[in-house]
Structure formats: C-alpha cells, structure tokens
Fold this protein.
Amino acid sequence: MIRKAKLADKVEITRLYHKLYPERKRYLKELLPIEKFNAKSLFFVSEEKKNIVGFIWSTFINYGNSRVGYVEDLFVKKEYRNKGIGTSLVRRVIRELKKLKVAVIYVPTEKGRNEAIKIYRNLGFRKDSNQCWFYLKTW
C-alpha cells in the first residue's frame, strides 16, 4: 500500500533517511524537519503490515511557463528490495506530478546506486547529456 506520509511518520522516515545517508547521521542528529519544508513537495511511504518499509520525496518548482519536478530521495529497506516497492513509489510520484502539469521530472542519483538507476531507466527516465541527472518528460 502506498499512502501520503504523515507527521506521525517523522521518526521512522528520519531513521530510514539515516540508512540512506549514513554519513549525514553524525551532524544531523535531530529529526528531519519535514513539517517546516517550504518547497512544494510530495512525500509518500510504502507500508507492509503497518510498518514503513520505504519512502519517496519529490518537489516541484514553477519556472516561468513551466513546472519542473525532482525526485529528492527514494529509499526501500534492504530486505524489501526487488519486490516492486521502489517502482511503485516512483510511479506514484510520476502520476501525481503529471496531475500537477509538471513538464519534466529530474532525478539526481549517485554512481553505484544501481538499483535506483535501474528503476528510473525501466520507467522511461533517460540520462542527460552531462551524465549526472536522469529525467522523464511527461508531455
């Protein structure tokens, strides 16, 4: 089941965020301030038996006549990977961003994140010419 994240999910999302970016845990000791984030964003979680097993966070910005979306973070617990959860989370964000008339969705991803790169490629994202972003045109 994919649902919108709630403020009550903050502790678990922060714990998963620290698994995604363990090097940031040293200096990011407090809970993520998701309720204070001013950008327009979408946040979804994946649940299995009432436990959050993954999340996706995306934002969108108006640039003149167009709207651009970004997938900021995608994370699925290791033991739940290769079950379609990451793909389902990305599909949900694509669907929601299309409703918001986003022209293009960008995904910054690091080398070595092969599982995520495979998800994005399978969903139609293409690498841009400078080789550091994936993108998907929605119209």
Notes: The CA atoms of residues 46 and 58 lie 15 Å apart. The first strand starts at residue 2 and ends at 4.
